[in-house]
Amino acid sequence: MQLLSATLDRVKPSPTVAMSGRALELKAAGRDVIGLAAGEPDFDTPPHVAAAGIRAIEEGRTRYTAVDGTAELKRAICAKFARDNGLDYGPAEISVGTGGKQVLYNALMATLNPGDEVVIPAPYWVSYPDMVRLAGATPVIVEAPLSAGFKITPAQLEAAITGRTRWLILNSPSNPTGAAYSEAELKGLTDVLLRHPHVWVLSDDIYEHLVYDGFRFTTPAQVEPRLKARTLTVNGVSKAYAMTGWRIGYAAGPEALIAGMRKVQSQSTSNPCSISQFAALAALEGPHDFLAERNAAFLRRRDMVVARLNEIDGIDCPVPEGAFYVYPSIKGLIGKVSAGGTEIADDEAFAMALLDEAEVAVVFGAAFGLSPAFRISYALADETLAQACDRIARFCAGLR
């Protein structure tokens, strides 16, 4: 008898986690590896947020809560959507989960059936297609190349939609590219969706507050209010508030969908960590002045990394509008051979050779659905990033 479910044959482990794990193994063996694979800020959780978590422990706030979030946190999330996005939601339209990843998973598990399709622009966050497959549905990948700014067009979306399409997943600003849709670009996509009332929108806004150069963030339900009744807007405290380990994500959407997601969560994890919920409450309701300082650091790092990578022959690195990633093309390096004798047949070979020979961990582009490229997280100290860029430049100079 086969032990594992056939469902697992349709999915693969997260490549970002795998690359980070390989880097940790080499570090444990004494190698001086610089890890650029993990997508989390290097800043600490803001002191007032950490203090709220400690206070919750001291006050004994350590028991079960409502399955999908405390009433206090849900009210704070409603206030956040009104304040930041001009969207009006009630507590019954809010779901809180153990990270944005669980919220996304709950939504797909609650809505998808075999034969359904989900439109996903590529490059995509590695988990989107596999979550769709785990739910028994089919991901429909729409390529958004570098030449298009890593954004799909209304014509591409129109062509991808069929009678079986249930969702469009949008992530803006994007992991892995940092590309962000302007209000006008979103309006072009929402105009298409208005013509297809059976298609819902899952907007992953986790990098909302990490935008640069005066970019104005907007979200689909804000751009087109007529879509609000079939939009799930997902967000969380992980990235902007440097709370990746606290594991709190949330979403706003129609009450019937939220109820379905609650049912899924009630039979999996039940409530998110009570301590983390009180910390998230402090994050949403507390001061946000630290964001400007941290975004200035991210902007400085972005500009340095983009400039350094574009000095390397064979690499083309666009300037992202948000998040803390760059996604440079290595089209000009394919077919070369490294100093250590590795043929750079594809971006996975590039990433593995870079790790083994130059001790820099990145994630290869095939993991995100668009090659040949690689992703760098620049959420590290300036001096560490500069050293990593030096190593990448030397590695590429040694290619023949």
Please characterize this protein's 3D structure.
With 400 residues, the chain is of the alpha/beta class. The protein folds into 2 domains: 6-44 and 290-397, Aspartate Aminotransferase, domain 1, CATH 3.90.1150; 63-285, Aspartate Aminotransferase, domain 2, CATH 3.40.640. The chain has helices at residues 15-28, 47-58, 71-85, 100-111, 127-134, 154-160, 183-194, 220-223, 255-266, 274-285, 290-310, 347-358, 382-397; strands at 34-35, 94-97, 117-122, 138-143, 165-171, 200-204, 231-236, 249-252, 325-326, 360-361, 363-364, 374-377. The strands form 3 sheets. The chain has a 7-stranded mixed β-sheet, with helices on both faces. The protein has a 3-stranded antiparallel β-sheet with strand order 9-12-11. Strands 1-10 form a two-stranded parallel sheet. Helix 8 (220-223) links the parallel strand 6 and strand 7. Helix 2 runs antiparallel to helix 10, helix 3 (71-85) runs parallel beside helix 10 and helix 6 packs parallel to helix 7. The radius of gyration is 21 Å and the shape is globular.
